[in-house]
Design brief:
This protein has helices at 8-17, 93-106, 161-172, 191-202, 269-277, 300-303, 309-323, 341-345, 351-355; strands spanning 54-58, 64-69, 81-86, 113-118, 183-189, 213-219, 231-233, 238-240, 280-286, 329-334. The protein is of the alpha/beta class.
Length: 357
Amino acid sequence: MGRWFSFRPWSLAVLAAVALVSGAGLSASASESVPRLARSSMPAACGDDGQRCFEQFALPDGSQFPVYRNMPLSGNPTVTHAVVVVHGILRNSKTYFAAMMQAATKDHADADTIVVAPWFQTSQDKPGPNAPYWVDQPPRRADAPGWLQGDGAVRPAGLSSFAVVDDLLDTLADPQRFPNLRSITVAGHSAGGQFVQRYAVFGAASGRLPRVAINYVAANASSYVYFDPTRPVGDGTRFEVPTSAGCPGYDTYKYGLAGRTGYVAALSPQQALAQYLSRRVTIVNGADDTFDNGDEDTTCPAVAQGQHRAARGASYLTYIQGLHPTAQHDRIVVPDVGHSQSDIFNSPLVAPVLFGH
């Protein structure tokens, strides 16, 4: 069983009292809120540039996918928990790795937790000759393809970013490599939060890893996948079908289930909903993530889900609970935090769903 089962009664009590909002993850951008915590620095064991924690993860087709990790993916018998942390729109996996390692150390979870930060590159990152890469994805294009919604890579052609995480989870759950690993958290912030929420809907790995409990944490996402044409109205707790003529594409993937292709088209709408409801998902919002920091999705399909990230997270949990009141889905609101992945990951309210103690 997953090790976070032990803290669920405590977390429900906290959730009744607080709400959460997550940060943008823009480590060097003027649009990012400056976190109150010191900027996350790379663990000393990784070297100042992080190269000692950098690894080329071999995919089944022979591609070399870059990741940062605190322990080699070849295996370690002391590991009992794993965190896969997905970067934001700037693809700054090194910054996200450092922030999650800071949180793991603060929570005294670093000794038995492997942290893995995948790097979904685009042509702007000058990927090596054997490295996968995706098209660059503008943050304000509702129809833009890219890694954050599971689309196929430019190279190797058609490789879904979700399939990469499937391979990472398969590797972490391999008893020959990590014989004592019992639980995995897949977490992301901002664009990474969008990735994680959609991966929780469509990801295939969880269903074939029965010995490992998998938990999904989607923080400060700009939008979510809805399973029917309704969207929140009024105070965000009622749902009606909007006039599509005024908002074309509002129910097309990545916002709804229409128009799916590739990896995410493998499941029927009914299968996708059933799979999502069966999974343990936590939405995290910073209470102050209520304005556009420069990379919020402000397109009509996103605004149809709520005026800002915090409102969208609140309405989406209400929507899911309306579909299935007993689903293992929660929401955490972190007071006095905006769009900062460091402040979200290091919050004591969020630590239990990240590290599961």
